[in-house]
């Protein structure tokens, strides 16, 4: 019986402590976070355009994932750094400008997700991703880039990529 009482007290303590640490965030704080997130994302894109390797990767978590437009581009952060470094070293990485962006934040204010329409060297693209708060700073933990293709042009694109897609599929 004593063990049951002790276990109940411990469970209650843990439950209260967990709830206390995950307090819902007030609306005005969520709006402030949206502004902070937009600043982080714009600075991240600018760092790529300026070929500032350190600034670019400082906006990402250590375990971040970057999914590019090619079917083979599912990069863990270390591999993405290795892939990207030569582009940054040449002084020309990539240039993305957000034309519109939607940001959504969890009720606890520690996780956010977004989508954006981008003007890029590939013309219009879509980006989407997840950010998390790390030591009171928003960091990108997951990013997906896709080329925006008008629905009417999809049959042409399928023809262009069919051979490469079958190679990739055969390797999976």
UniProtKB/TrEMBL annotation:
Read off the lineage from the record. Answer: Bacteria, Pseudomonadati, Bacteroidota, Flavobacteriia, Flavobacteriales
* A Pfam family recorded for this sequence: SnoaL_3
Q: Which residues form the SnoaL-like domain?
A: 37-150
- UniProt xrefs under InterPro entries: NTF2-like_dom_sf, SnoaL-like
Official protein name in the record: SnoaL-like domain-containing protein
So which domain of life are we looking at? Bacteria
